[in-house]
Amino acid sequence: MCNQTVCLVGAELERRGISTVAIQLLREVAERMRPPRALFVPFKHGYPLDKPNDPQRQLAVVEAALRLLEDTQLTPPVLAEFPASLD
Amino acid sequence: MGDLNEFSLPVKLFLKAYPWRKIDPVPWAPQKKPLSECRLALVSTAGFILPGQKPFDKSIRGGDFSFREVSRDAEVRELHESHRSESFDHAGIHQDPNLAFPLDRARELVLRGRIGSLNRRHLSFMGSITAPGRLIQQTAPAAAQLLAEDAVNVALLVPV
Fold first, then answer.
1. Which residue, among A68, A78, A73, has the nearest Cα to B35 in the 3D structure?
2. CB-CB under 8 Å, B96 with A11
3. Which residue in A37, A60, A71, B39 is a FRET match for A80, CA 20 to 30 A apart?
């Protein structure tokens, strides 16, 4: 349900002019809900940035999400995958 | 790994049948300036609270739709998780709350100049909300109002 909650809050932020990117742990939820920008990550629930106490790994996931904010060619809804090269 | 097969059969069947709320039309706030000039807010749905804050209420039918504010200066190790779901492994976020509330990572990105600044407050929800009407009508708009008042430019949303 967390996946839905971040999508719904994110949509409200976008309506107020705040650009958002939501990490998603269930691809089919993102496909059905259509948040504005989503990064699907192949990690289990409870581990959205993959590994505890691993700052570099966590930063890699955050960076992948931030890059979706920077890509001006994207159009909504955006559903990207955490790059395989980083996995 | 990020699919329904992680869950027990009853949870899987519930999620399969659940009427996920389609966002339509999809709102879109284009990114207008470099991240190095942007103010970032974090929104996590891992149910974190700080010492002294009211825990999320596990007895509310349909899920506690409230949220807590987490100061930019909060100590990550003081975040206490009160998420009601038993459908995921809580061990990782107990070991390291940055896993779902990456406040230390965000601080590092500001220090590097990758992000302009961190907002003075970040938001914590408890994401297990099966009946999201009050979230949609009340608390999500209230959260957006707060962050808009703070002139936040970008937000990273992290489920658990």
1. A68
2. no
3. B39
- Please enumerate in sequence order all residues whose Cβ is within 8 A of that of A21, keeping only pairs 6 or more positions apart, or say none: A10, A37, A38, A39, A65, A66, A68, A69, B154, B155, B156, B157
Considering the entire predicted model, what is its pTM? Answer: 0.95
The tens digit of pLDDT for each residue in B15-37 reads 888 989 999 999 999 998 999 99
Q: Is B133 exposed, middle or buried (0-12, 13-18, 19+ CB in 10 A)?
A: exposed
B85-127 residue pLDDT tens:
888 899 999 999 999 999 999 999 999 999 999 999 999 999 8
Q: A43-82: per-residue pLDDT in tens?
A: 999 999 999 999 999 999 999 999 999 998 999 999 999 9
Judged by CB atoms closer than 8 Å, whether chains meet at A59 and B1 is answered as no
Q: Where are the domains of chain B?
A: 33-158
CB pair distance less than 8 Å for B22 and A34: yes
The complex's ipTM works out to: 0.96
Residue in B closest to A59 by C-alpha: B105
Answer whether A2 sits within 8 Å of B127, measured CB to CB.
yes
Three-state DSSP state, B145: helix
Smallest CA–CA distance, residue A39 to chain B, in Å, is 10
Residues in chain A with CB shorter than 8 Å from the CB of B106 are: 62
* Alpha-carbon distance B71 to nearest alpha carbon in chain A (angstroms): 19
Selected for mutation to probe chain A from B15, B36, B99 (highest A CB count within 10 Å) is B99
Burial class (CB in 10 A: 0-12, 13-18, 19+), A11: buried
